[in-house]
Automatic annotation (TrEMBL):
Provenance organism: Cocos nucifera
Family to which this protein belongs: Belongs to the TRAFAC class myosin-kinesin ATPase superfamily. Kinesin family.
Name by which UniProt lists this protein: Putative Kinesin-like protein KIN-7E, chloroplastic
One Gene Ontology term of the molecular function aspect: ATP binding
Keyword Methyltransferase: no
Biased composition, class Basic and acidic residues, residue ranges: 52-62
Domain Kinesin motor: 64-108
Compositionally biased residues, Low complexity: 1-17
Region (Disordered): 1-62
Length: 108
């Protein structure tokens, strides 16, 4: 047998060599699935209930969280740039805003 460059034309046709076509059914051409069609009308959202939603019972589960806050002096670059201290430590457990001392975070 001699090699031929047109060997593909002499190969038998198999199902995998045919282009795949999706079968068409009457139902697939007549309607679209609900999730693809646009809604015909929008229903109004009901107003919020006067009853607040129930909160989970936090007393049942306890977590221990450790928070470490590190303060450092401003660097020479920060000082030259004009940065200012924005927070200061008020004792061991409170951090306050320099410009509005009523803004504070407590850690205990």
């Amino acid at each position: 047998m001699t090699p031929s460059s047109s060997s593909s034309s002499s190969r038998p046709t198999t199902p995998s060599s045919l282009p795949a076509a999706r079968p068409t059914t009457p139902s697939s051409t007549a309607s679209r699935p609900a999730y693809l069609s646009k809604p015909s009308s929008v229903s109004p959202v009901s107003p919020p209930s006067s009853h607040p939603p129930e909160r989970p019972d936090f007393a049942k589960s306890k977590e221990n969280v450790t928070v470490t806050v590190r303060f450092r002096p401003l660097s020479a670059r920060e000082i030259n740039k004009g940065d200012e201290i924005a927070w200061y430590a008020d004792g061991d457990y409170i951090v306050r805003n320099e410009y509005n001392p009523s803004i504070a975070y407590g850690f205990g």
